[in-house]
Amino acid sequence: MTTPSVIAVGNFDGVHRGHQALFAEARRIADDVHQRTGQLPQVTAVSFRAHPLSVLKPGEQPPMILHPEQREAALRNAGADRVDWLDPTVDLLKLQPTEFLKQMVERYQPIAMVEGVNFRFGRGRAGGHENLPAMGRELGFDVSIVQLDQITLRDKLMTDVSSSLVRWLIGRGRMVDVSLCLGRPYVLRGNVVEGEKRGRTIGYPTINLNCGLQMLPCDGVYGGRVELNGQTHAAAVSIGHKPTFGQRMLTCEAHLLDFDGDLYGQTVDLTMLRWLRDQIPFANVDALKQQLHHDTQQVRHLHETGMLDAAALVAVGE
Fold this sequence. Notes:
Blueprint: E1 5-10, H1 17-37, E2 42-48, H2 53-56, H3 68-78, E3 82-86, H4 90-93, H5 97-108, E4 110-116, H6 132-139, E5 142-146, E6 150-152, E7 158-160, H7 163-170, H8 175-182, E8 186-193, H9 198-201, E9 207-210, E10 220-228, E11 231-240, E12 251-256, E13 267-277, H10 285-304, H11 310-316
Parallel strand pairs: 1-2, 1-4, 2-3, 4-5
Antiparallel strand pairs: 6-7, 8-9, 8-13, 9-12, 10-11, 10-13, 11-12
Helix pairs in contact: 7-8, 8-11
């Protein structure tokens, strides 16, 4: 017999603070049922493996904030006992709202469904907060609608947290605001690939990351960190097209402070903490080396004084 569930369905890209509020409510409902009945329902996240627009309007889907394995870990940290993946097939996406919910009932036996006020589902996005509660009553489960979570950004703008907002902020390099929306820093996950090894020849070796479909912040130099073998290494991160060398291929590379090793072929999590400066061309390699020295010394100072992390920046109002 399938264990009863409290379910939440959605893309959950980023697993931002608004998503976390959904799972906090789902956990509250499950714990209340457990206290009253002795039976503990599973809190289940039902997430689309790929964005539905990748099927409905290929090429128009938004960039990915988290790789699926990152998203699953974040959903579990938010309170999900189980994460199930839906493939956004044409057959699934053309289901009427009630037909879609019947599939959810058959699969998960939900006693409750928790969704945000902006949740839409079913063919033509016909299902939503205005009719989901009535459908739930008809199919035998409760519905809890959670209001949007609000955040005050560092420019003092108060706004609703959403995946679209997170992408907008990433695209402008506003990593502290991204951390505020996510409730944690933004982490790029990528495979270490061979680059041109030009950094090594000028005294600043880097790891080059291929992050696949994950969204990169805008061109710039950033402060970040990498955890390797239980040690934390501050990192000066360059994202862009290497204007000094006239390249147009987008790269993500990081110089890890106090690290000398070979990471080719490994998967590395690069935590992006704060923007430092724009990408600019330099007149010659010596001028570039001088700037790289300044960048690495700045990152080292921020790391050693505890000011590299977004939480520290917010605390002092920088």
